[in-house]
């Protein structure tokens, strides 16, 4: 075997073990007994120690030295790009620190869930303080004298910086705020009211998953406090949640997670259990979940079909026709929860988190002051006060599991989705006629062919440029939002 073949065989085993570790995380969120959290923390730490050791094994250094990347084909060069970067990153982070982060974040996740249920911020702050301290240490090691938050972002969106993201947000905020003000001053569509049993929601949500191309033979739909997707290749799982007063929460969480899951299921099988066999970045991943959820799932055409499905499942529910239902689905409304936010206000939720976590990592904001800072910023941005911690600082799981630098990729994914949607509409001019029958295949197949199947072959930005044919910019997203909501609200 050549050095490249030996390295890829070793990497195959490492990727398989990483999938096992991911399955432990999925189980913790869905099936694990509540009393098992302390043991699970030890198990997660043990898996991270094994993975960390493999990723910086001296044999990897020998193989990397022996391999001439220029002699490889395009796929081989892409594999090496990922492996070399992972090796360099892993060498910077001490193994005991990586294991301690895995242990503490596993424990913190359970404490967060309980604190959220109890509306008890004080019960969560000590472990969050520990998570922040450990993640700062990791960020400092990775930054190697550079910007700590940039090093954290790079874990989720390679080659992106906080300065670039801040400039993007500065360009987006005035138009989003102006659109929100105009919309909220107009007459709102009717809100959804009624009782929608959870079992019926789950039946329809599985139908929606299949309608968007999710392969149930290689996946499953379960419930979790915070919906997420997990896995890659032949085992890709998603979760959703139900609220018997708000079925949209369930349906659009499912469609969103199907976007993530379909990306992983759609990657070329030749890349299975290699660095190319998973989504290239969280921003690109989010582009798939958001275009599935919003540009497709909340379109006038698709909501017309969904209206009929909901009447079949729930009977009459107070919305007279498909056009009124389209307005109800896209109603801009006050609310605290990011995952339930309408398209107009969603990115404002991300900007809040982006600024707060940058301040936390820079040491400009203490964990003890985080709740007050959140509440003050929310009141300033949205015009009303947070009523309880589960609607405020405790609503997201991300900080409990150490995902600092992750939040801005949500907005970046929205921007990418805007670019992709622009191109998709030109490529499939009769898309609405198909969506009106519940057939998303033209759109999902276009996305699979032009983006999903390539996995990590290209860099994130090049992935979007290849699929959309344009340099990523907020303009397509902002134009789409202004046109859509101006029509709905008669602006």
From TrEMBL:
Active-site residues, as the UniProt record annotates them: 257 (proton donor/acceptor)
Positions bound to Zn(2+): 256, 260, 286
Cofactor: how bound: Binds 1 zinc ion per subunit.
Catalyzed chemical reaction(s): Release of a C-terminal amino acid with broad specificity, except for -Pro
Domain of life: Bacteria
EC identifiers of the protein: 3.4.17.19
Sample GO molecular function, one term: metallocarboxypeptidase activity
GO biological process: proteolysis
InterPro entries per record: Peptidase_M32_Taq
Pfam families found in the cross-reference section: Peptidase_M32
Hydrolase recorded as keyword: yes
Cofactor: Zn(2+)
Record key words, sorted: Carboxypeptidase, Hydrolase, Metal-binding, Metalloprotease, Protease, Zinc
Enzyme class: hydrolase
Role this protein plays: Broad specificity carboxypetidase that releases amino acids sequentially from the C-terminus, including neutral, aromatic, polar and basic residues.
Family the entry assigns: Belongs to the peptidase M32 family.
Protein name: Metal-dependent carboxypeptidase
Organism encoding this protein: Shimia aestuarii
